[in-house]
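quick one before i forget lol
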Amino acid sequence: MVKKTKEKTPKKSAIKAVFSGEIVYSNKKEAFSLYEQSRFGEAKEGKIFYSFAEALYLLEREKIEITSKKKKLSFQRLIEELKKEDPKIETKYRVFKDLRDKGYIVKTALKFGAEFRVYDKGIKPGEDHAKWIIYPVKESETLTWHDFSAKNRVAHSTKKNLLIGIVDEESDVTYYEVSWTKP
C-alpha cells in the first residue's frame, strides 16, 4: 500500500489539472512547459494528458494540483480513485516513482503489450527509442513460464530489453533484466 505520512498541499505555482473518470489532463501553459522540459504527459488536442503514475508522481512532488468535480484531490484520495480504474496502480506507481527518481523517463507502453517503456538516461521520447519495456509485479504474485515467455517475446519483437520490476512488502523495487542471447 502506498502510504504518505503527511498530506501536502500543492504549491501556489502548481499546475492545475483535472481528473475526469479515466483521464488526468491540463491545458495550462505550465503543463506544456513541464512537458517540454522533462516529458511528463502526452501533448495532444491542445492538452497535456497524464498517465495515472505521472499524475501521482507530480501530485506527490507538489508540481500539480488535481481537481475532480471542483474538489482538490489529496495524494491518498487520488490513489483511492485510481484503484477503481486500475487495481494494480500502487505497484505500478512504486516502479514508476523509483525509475523517475533515478533519472529515467518512463512512459506508458500499452501498444507494446507492457506497462511502461523506459528511456535510457539523457534520452527523451522522440529523440530515440526506449531501451526497455517493464512489467511491475508484487513480490507475492506468481508469473507462469508461459506469461514470462510471452513478455520476453514482446520485448524481443519490439527490439527492447525486458525489465521485471518486483515490489516487495517494504515497497522497495528490485529489477531483473532479461534479454535474448544466441548460443
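fyi The helical segments are 29-38, 52-60, 75-85, 89-101, 145-157.
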